[in-house]
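for the recovery benchmark. tokens below, seq after
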């Protein structure tokens, strides 16, 4: 099944399918058609209309039309002029570049610049920048063929670049998705390799044993195969998030191995009896390891309860496979140790490594004699953290994950500079009746609204039937550029009657008015200014709509991909914030189930709030925005960070029974045994998550960096603050062990006597 996993080439909306904004956008897309199959090519060339350069542009367009998957092309060389036929009282659509005997370049340039209808849509006269819009087959661009189609287009573009010396720039959803899909595939293999390399080096440094490395790699290798196989079995494709699961399992699985191996080595060093050691590993560490895997998995399963498909898939696959890696490690590790010789003395040296022993000793001394300082530093740190957390801002961008120096981002900025971006923002007027677009008052209101919206630098020039009416008026007055304005009420009747319903290859009419004539659309492009500023922009546009349309403003809707994405980011941030509280609740229930004491739940959960606050503070102080790729960190980090608390509290509780409820001695034994494992696993997790910093995606990079920072805070908190709180406030009363604990203790004692 793992070999059958497929890359996702389909868009994954952030809003749930039932959301009114998404439903409205889908409805208007059916009326006017979607723009998700259009690729955009742009070039800046002051000599564009020179014979050689223009010929190269013609050749590029001709060659691209013959490419598989290309359905239509519209560029500056395809623009249409309207010629007035007074006999038939119709406008005749004529291609400006139809004749082979074209005038000189200066005349051509003046002729193009005399058509303001296309200014800002296909060309920018000030910067000499020109566009080519390529319509691709909708079916093919949602399949693996997309890569071949895009690469074929790029190959032809390289020929043009070589012939002219001009650099072409690319954008549009098909192009961006194809590039991102290839990056996802490459990075999944890269991170698996980096995670294996990083964890192997750390394991060798800690244990000095190739056998340990081999056993650990068998465990995590099996889990990686399971994760890819489960994607296929569940019918999911490989997305930006699910591609993170395989390397994530390697990073999470190795600490499982460390806790089990470290306990085994402790037991061998103590009594050198393999069967007794394996018994104690399974019974004393097995339950704690299960709970740590469960709490980690619960940090992911909360995403299943969001209504965003890509997050639900990620949460379910991660949840199932994190529980799966517990099963794998608890079967494979004891099995290997049962059939292999006892570890040699050099393999046990890590238990007595001077550096770690000194570190543990300092921790014990601090907990015993400097608890007040621990509490003072903790309080100051929390206050410092809360101040930083208050600086957090929620803001995301439409192509947030792609790095700023990547060609996709650079080209996007190119189109923003010359055409105010390419992200669609649409305003749709419901006239309330078929052919309502013929009502002249609607033209006047739309024209007033367009003039109001000129004050926003984030918006491009509008594309609407009002602009077409201005174009028609200019044509009626023999192409006089000064006549490019809305026809008056007396002119409109005969000027608009000249316009045919289809005026050439672009079918512009169909993009402006639906087939019934009830809906009128104004199309803008908007710059990627971030969800926070985008929300302010939408509110301002709504206010302008209310001023222009008055009581009819309820019939005007703002829609488009930019609106869906912007509201999707806000929705996702809100959903993920809610999922964090759900993760806290589920983890608390799991801890309560294990320890049967509310106090232990407070210790485990409360202590691990501190790392989350400090991570939020780090984001606030360094200006890292709260967005989907960073909000996701908190649920994941909490699930992993609480693992150290569970291992420590489990060992502490076991020692209480062995020491007759002597808190001081129990803390000493718990720190001595679990402290080393906590340091080891934290090193693995810290370096393991750090490999994600090598990602080209901002979201993946943020995931790696922020989780690593959170776990660094967490290990310090669990080694110093948790034992200090137990030493100061835990006053356990001697009591009989629970049924499960009593069974384990009796079996352990009986097994030891029998051996």
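predicted aa per position
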């Amino acid at each position: 099944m793992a070999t059958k996993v497929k890359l996702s080439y389909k868009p994954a909306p952030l809003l749930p399918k039932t959301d009114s904004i998404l439903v409205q956008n889908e409805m208007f897309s059916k009326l006017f058609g979607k723009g998700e199959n259009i690729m955009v090519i742009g070039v800046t060339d002051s000599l564009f209309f020179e014979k050689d350069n223009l010929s190269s542009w013609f050749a590029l367009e001709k060659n691209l039309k013959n490419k598989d998957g290309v359905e239509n092309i519209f560029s500056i060389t395809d623009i249409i002029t309207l010629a007035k036929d007074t006999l038939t009282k119709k406008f005749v659509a004529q291609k400006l570049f139809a004749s082979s005997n074209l005038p000189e370049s200066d005349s051509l340039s003046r002729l193009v610049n005399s058509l303001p209808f296309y200014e800002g849509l296909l060309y920018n006269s000030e910067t000499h920048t020109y566009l080519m819009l390529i319509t691709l087959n909708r079916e093919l661009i949602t399949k693996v063929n997309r890569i071949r189609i895009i690469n074929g287009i790029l190959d032809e573009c390289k020929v043009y670049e070589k012939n002219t010396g001009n650099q072409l720039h690319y954008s549009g959803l098909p192009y961006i998705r194809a590039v991102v899909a290839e990056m996802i595939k490459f990075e999944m293999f890269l991170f698996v390799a980096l995670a294996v390399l990083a964890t192997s080096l750390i394991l060798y440094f800690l244990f000095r044993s190739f056998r340990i490395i081999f056993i650990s790699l068998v465990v995590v290798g099996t889990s990686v195969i399971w994760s890819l196989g489960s994607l296929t079995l569940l019918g999911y494709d490989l997305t930006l998030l699910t591609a993170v699961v395989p390397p994530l399992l390697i990073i999470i699985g190795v600490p499982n191995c460390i806790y089990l191996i470290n306990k085994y080595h402790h037991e061998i060093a103590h009594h050198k009896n393999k069967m007794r050691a394996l018994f104690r590993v399974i019974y004393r560490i097995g339950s704690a390891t299960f709970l740590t895997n469960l709490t980690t998995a619960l940090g992911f399963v909360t995403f299943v309860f969001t209504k965003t498909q890509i997050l639900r898939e990620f949460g379910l696959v991660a949840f199932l496979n994190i529980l799966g890696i517990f099963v794998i490690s608890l079967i494979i590790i004891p099995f290997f140790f049962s059939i292999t010789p006892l570890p040699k003395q050099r393999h046990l040296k890590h238990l007595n490594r001077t550096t770690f022993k000194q570190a543990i000793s300092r921790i014990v001394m601090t907990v015993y004699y400097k608890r007040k300082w621990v509490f003072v530093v903790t309080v100051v740190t929390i206050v410092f953290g809360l101040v930083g957390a208050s600086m957090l801002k929620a803001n995301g961008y439409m192509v947030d994950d792609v790095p700023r120096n990547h060609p996709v981002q650079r080209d996007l900025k190119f189109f923003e500079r010359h055409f105010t971006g390419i992200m669609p923002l649409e305003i749709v007027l419901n006239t309330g009746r078929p052919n309502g677009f013929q009502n002249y008052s609607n033209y006047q209101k739309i024209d007033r609204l367009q003039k109001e919206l000129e004050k926003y630098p984030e918006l491009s020039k509008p594309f609407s039937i009002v602009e077409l009416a201005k174009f028609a008026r200019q044509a009626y007055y023999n192409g006089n550029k000064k006549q490019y304005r809305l026809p008056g009420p007396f002119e409109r009747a005969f000027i608009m009657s000249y316009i045919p319903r289809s005026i050439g290859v672009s079918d512009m009419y169909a993009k402006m008015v639906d087939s019934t004539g009830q809906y009128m659309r104004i199309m803008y492009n908007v710059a990627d200014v971030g969800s926070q500023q985008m929300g302010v922009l939408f509110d301002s546009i709504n206010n302008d709509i209310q001023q222009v349309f008055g009581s009819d403003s309820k019939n005007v809707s703002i829609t488009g991909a930019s609106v869906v994405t912007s509201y999707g980011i806000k929705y996702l941030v809100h959903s993920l914030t809610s999922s964090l509280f759900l993760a806290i609740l589920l983890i608390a229930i799991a801890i309560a189930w294990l320890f049967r004491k509310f106090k232990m739940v407070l210790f485990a959960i409360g202590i691990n709030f501190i790392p989350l606050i400090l991570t939020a503070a780090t984001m606030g102080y360094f200006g890292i925005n709260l967005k989907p790729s960073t909000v996701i960190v908190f649920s994941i980090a909490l699930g992993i960070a609480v693992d150290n608390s569970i291992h420590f509290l489990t060992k502490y509780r076991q020692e209480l029974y062995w020491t007759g409820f002597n808190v001081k001695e129990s803390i000493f034994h718990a720190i001595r045994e679990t402290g080393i494992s906590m340091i080891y696993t934290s090193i693995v997790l810290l370096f393991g998550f750090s490999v994600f910093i090598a990602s080209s995606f901002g979201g993946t990079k943020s995931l790696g960096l922020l989780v690593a920072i959170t776990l660094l805070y967490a290990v310090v908190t669990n080694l110093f603050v948790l034992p200090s709180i137990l030493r100061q406030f835990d006053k356990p009363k001697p009591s009989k062990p629970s049924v499960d604990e009593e069974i384990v203790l009796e079996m352990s004692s009986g097994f030891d006597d029998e051996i």
